[in-house]
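Sample entry follows:

_____
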Amino acid sequence: MSWRRDLCNFCGACVGVCPVNALFLDEGKVLIDQETCIACGFCEKTCPLGALEVLTRAV
C-alpha cells in the first residue's frame, strides 16, 4: 500500500472499513500494518482525499 501522508488529514475513514484492521489510529495518526494488509482496496475507495493507493503484492 502506498500512503500519501501529505494528503491525509487523519480523519480515520479508512480505519473503519478495513476488514483485517491493518489500519488504525494511534495518537491521532493513521498507521498501517503492511504485513496484515490484504490489498482489498476498501481504504483506497473510502479515502475522501485520495491519500491511499493499494498496490498488488507479488506472490
Summary: Strands lie at 2-3, 23-26, 29-32, 52-53.
